[in-house]
Amino acid sequence: MKKTFLKTVACLALCASAFAHAENYPSKTITMIVPFSAGGPTDTVARLVAQSMSTSLKQTVIVENVGGAGGTIGAARVAKAAPDGYTIFLHHIGMSTAPTLYRKLSYNAITDFEPIGLVTDVPMTFIARSNFPAKDFKELLAYVKANKDKVTYANAGVGSASHLCGMLFMTAIDTELTTVPYKGTGPAMNDLLGGQVDFMCDQTTNTTSQIKSGKVKAYAVTTKKRVPSLPELPTMSEAGLPGFEIAVWHGLYAPKGTPKQAIDSLATALQTALKDATVKQRFADLGTEPVAQDQATPEALRAHLKSEIAKWAPIIKKAGVYAD
């Protein structure tokens, strides 16, 4: 009887401590893991959101870059992190493609994370080295098909947004091209600027400044509507490839089992960040915008992730592209 009583007291004390801890959340620095290198498009989105969330949470939100293997190394780390609300994770569309692209994953994209909310949909742009001969997208298509053995397409590695866009492009035009994978967007862009590769498709958060400065040739955007920050660029449908659409959505997650109170606080802070005038302006400068408030919720992200996994699985399987 005495042992049972002591166990009950200990349990009540532990529960009270956990409740008090939850009530005081957050009480220390929060780490936001980004599964790509610093300076890339996802890192840019993360740092803008983290800075604003720090203000509303009244605790510092630091960004830590854990790159490699198309974002799966960072994702695996978060899946194994303590579910206490002090490790969160910002990832892009790759969260939905990794389950099909990678033969072996040490985590489950659906069951090992707690969704917090969608963040933004980033358009992509088709760009080429500044001296590429095609003057518009129609000529680009003709040139690529006529020179498929010579043209080089750069991407930021398997599972990256630029890899996915290129895969869709080659499927859409029924033409296999020589792809040159890099370890990140930065190196790929550097070689494009230097003329070592011919063209690529990448997020506006990474290409807008290069387009506006005239350092690259821009041909089209991959969204249904033109992008306000790049109004001169036609959509892919306008340019001659009807139905080609891809936007790089970003979502915020926590490890499975993170207390609901922490998830709710983080979701509220995210929603506040996406209403922040500075964040909205910086997003606009980069050719994107925050999602609607009703999308910056755990429920919306959970549903979106499931639908995107279902959408990409057959496309990837048909292309026959896999990573170990």
Automatic annotation (TrEMBL):
Belongs to the UPF0065 (bug) family. It comes from Oxalicibacterium solurbis. This is Tripartite tricarboxylate transporter substrate binding protein BugD. Keywords: Signal. It comes from the Bacteria. Residues 1-22 form the signal peptide. Gene3D superfamilies: Bordetella uptake gene, domain 1 (3.40.190.150), Periplasmic binding protein-like II (3.40.190.10). InterPro entries: BUG, Bug_dom1.
